[in-house]
Amino acid sequence: MKKNLLTGLMILFSFSAAAQTTAPSEAGQFGIAAGIALRCRAGKALYKYEEIISRYFANTAPNATVEKNMLTEYARAKAGSFMIDGRRNTTCAEDLRNFENMPLMKFELYSDGSLKTTDGKWLFPRGQKKLSPDAVRVY
Questions:
Q1: How many angstroms separate the first and last alpha carbons of the chain?
Q2: Which of 26, 73, 114, 134 sees the fewest Cβ atoms within 10 Å?
Q3: Position 77 in a domain
Q4: Hey, CA dihedral for 93, 73, 115, 120, is it positive or negative?
């Protein structure tokens, strides 16, 4: 699943080789996508993305320290890509269309913080083994 998400991000958003000296981590790639979406005024789609991505980090990180590091890296990559404009090979309209069609945007977020991926896999918050009985779908 992570491989599909990462591949999708790399395909959806093309950057010049000069913009990247090393390949960004998963959190960095998610941040790059968010920065471009922010620059293109994604609004509601970016809000949904950030809710899902914050739960994704929380549910996949083994502990709070790793989660914090992932969020920090995400924020730095987001800020950095927000400032890149001339290096993009696509228009904002294309970027927003690609952003809204990312596999991550099709994840289902539930009120207890659980995520259901596009392939039906569940990602639960640390310490939780199943969906809470009173959880409702948010997205």
A1: 19
A2: 134
A3: yes
A4: positive
Q: Strand runs (DSSP E) across 15-138, as ranges?
A: 108-109, 115-116, 122-123
Q: Give kind and range of the element (H or E) at residue 93.
A: helix 92-100
Q: Which DSSP state fits 15? A: B
- C-alpha 68/C-alpha 82 separation (Å) is 21
Answer yes or no: is 47 within a domain.
yes
pTM over 0.85: no
| Domain interval for residue 44 | 2-7+26-104
Residue 46 counted as domain residue: yes
Beta carbons of 25 and 79 less than 8 angstroms apart: no
pLDDT tens, per residue, the chain with 139 residues: 555 444 444 444 444 333 445 777 899 999 999 998 988 888 889 999 999 999 999 999 999 999 999 999 999 999 988 877 656 677 888 888 989 999 989 999 999 999 999 999 999 998 899 999 999 999 8
Write the DSSP assignment of 99-139 as a string of letters.
Answer: HHTSGGGG-EEBTTS-EE-TTS-EEPPTT--S--TT--B--
> How many structural domains are present in the chain?
1
- Give the C-alpha separation, 76 to 7, whole Å: 21
